[in-house]
Amino acid sequence: MNKKLGASPRVGIRDVAAAAGVSPTTVSHALSGARAINAETRARVLDAAQRLGYSPDPRARGLRSARSYTIGLLSDNIATTPYAGLLISGAQDAAAEHQSVVLALDSNGIAEREQRGISTLKNYRVDGIVYARMYHQQVSVPTELDGAHIVLADASSLDLSYSSVVPNEVGIGTDAIKHLTSVGHRRIGFVNLSESAPAVMGREQGYRQGMQDAGIPVDESLIVATTAGVQGGREAARKLLDRPNRPSAIFCFNDEAAMGVYQTAHEMGLAIPNDLSIIGVDNLELVSRALVPMLTTIALPHYEMGHWAVSRLFEPQEMASADRIHRQLPCELIQRDSVARPRS
Amino acid sequence: MNKKLGASPRVGIRDVAAAAGVSPTTVSHALSGARAINAETRARVLDAAQRLGYSPDPRARGLRSARSYTIGLLSDNIATTPYAGLLISGAQDAAAEHQSVVLALDSNGIAEREQRGISTLKNYRVDGIVYARMYHQQVSVPTELDGAHIVLADASSLDLSYSSVVPNEVGIGTDAIKHLTSVGHRRIGFVNLSESAPAVMGREQGYRQGMQDAGIPVDESLIVATTAGVQGGREAARKLLDRPNRPSAIFCFNDEAAMGVYQTAHEMGLAIPNDLSIIGVDNLELVSRALVPMLTTIALPHYEMGHWAVSRLFEPQEMASADRIHRQLPCELIQRDSVARPRS
DNA sequence: TTGAAAGCGCTAACAG
DNA sequence: CTGTTAGCGCTTTCAA
Description:
Two copies of one chain form a homodimer. Chain A is α/β, with parallel strands linked by helices. Chain A has helices at 13-20, 24-32, 39-52, 58-65, 86-96, 111-123, 169-182, 198-213, 230-241, 255-267, 285-288, 302-314, 316-320, and strands spanning 70-75, 101-106, 128-139, 150-157, 163-167, 188-193, 223-226, 249-252, 277-282, 296-299, 326-329, 332-334. Chain A is built from 13 helices and twelve strands. In chain A, strands 2-1-3-4-5-11 form a six-stranded parallel β-sheet. In chain A, strands 7-6-8-9-10-12 form a six-stranded mixed β-sheet, sandwiched between helices. The relative contact order of chain A is 0.12. Residues 1-7 of chain A have low confidence and may be disordered. The interface between A and B is large, with 69 and 69 residues. The first copy, chain A, binds a DNA duplex (16 and 16 nucleotides) through α2 and α4.
């Protein structure tokens, strides 16, 4: 007991070679498909490998072929942010499709930890790096990463020399408004953050676009910028609802803000969705399913971003050409119970 | 541009050896401390290594020395569960302290994915495995892992042949009750889950213990088992509060249940904390800070469990002896605004 | 206290 | 289509 994993003398490529009556080279190529092999020989090798439970040691493989079969994932706070961990899951799945694995390192937003993370990834000779953020933001890639094979996830950078994948922020706005106008709303408030981030700008643009698409002139007083968090949502709702001609629906920057709007609506005796329809962004199940009534919201494609980023790292064009792709992924509207047609 | 990471011909042990005027062997030993080296020579080597920015390739190292400098972390849904990702952070930090890295694989609760994860970890020749769960539960370690070097995190198993680390569930209960009784509560409700899990049993035991410690006989009708989720909290609160002699405080199995209790209290026109004090477990910031008033709760030691588990893997005793440690970590009470002394 | 040689498990380069 | 040889970068043996 307490043997090391694989203590039973691991079967190596020589064992398979012996069993199949061929050379190790042939086994290697039969398994990797790197060169043409007689079909029958190949079958014999595959069979032997299977029987012996052989699978190549990625370290030895990498040592020789200058690949590590490992992708690095450098993030700020993803591991500790609700559901953003899905980005990691997506990355893992994509890596697995290429017989690779992901080494996820979370800097927790601390610069020094990021530095160490970069060193670690370099040490482990990762084949590529996903540089990710927990929410869509503009980043500048650390210079220590220069020359590395990098894709940005849930982040974009000023210089466009890295491929990147982010949510379609404008689409989030237009989809939300489209959903609201389609059930009859015309006075629609927008609770936005008072920061300058891609998500903030994009969703506002989408809001304006959506209103325009519905032929509704934008009433600037219906757009209120507030601070992050539930508290911000409460305050913004107060401004929006505490007036004679209040909106019949509110599009919230995220679910947290929406939660604040719920609270204010409750205080004011407004019934959701009949007196006020609400739509959020994030699909934080913990919040959106807990609210009464359950919140209609737009889910961010975390899993998909992680998957796309890693897949991209494996594409030959990414390696070869200078053409970078900047992809915006669509976001899904999750219909629950906080939207209804307006009264009257 | 677009060179591979470390394309600039990486400095190897030979370069350092040349620069320091010694053999590669000496460099290796000077850096690893595996054998005695003349202090001056050693200094020269260290200096050269530093200057050249050398650090050994873990793959080559591992290939020779039968270690991979990699710890595997096999979990069910940790990456996608709010804040449980902290367990991974803790594991990473502990691994870094031992020049290692963690390969985190999330099965998403799918058996087939777990199987593949195990194969992957075996392939990568990890030095040890943390078998983790997103919440404290009883597990049986897959037989495929037999012979591996394993520690359980946020999980325990029937056979005690693996070291494990879990939250002190009983302590959670006694701490909660102690806090409540210390401000004067005597009729304290307990909203528990109707499952049979270590957390459920442990917290109830802690509740009883806490009441006993305060010299208060347990009123069985004050303990109500309900389903998981906010909805369960709402129903349980209804049972507890809709009676003449209602409790002045409620200890909730978790924050979600607490959220449900808040909602019911609101509906019934009960003011928190003055009419009803509430205490939760989990410290889901998204929930506990969002509620009005903010929720007093008990935080689970996710980070610490991850850290402990990996640290344990590196301890020689763990390797050598059959003595397994089953550790219960203390949990911190986070005081916010949902507890006050009862109305006379 | 140090160095030279061998080899971890695999794949690339070079034959045939 | 297949095999032989060499060597990835390091650490371990063995020898001095």
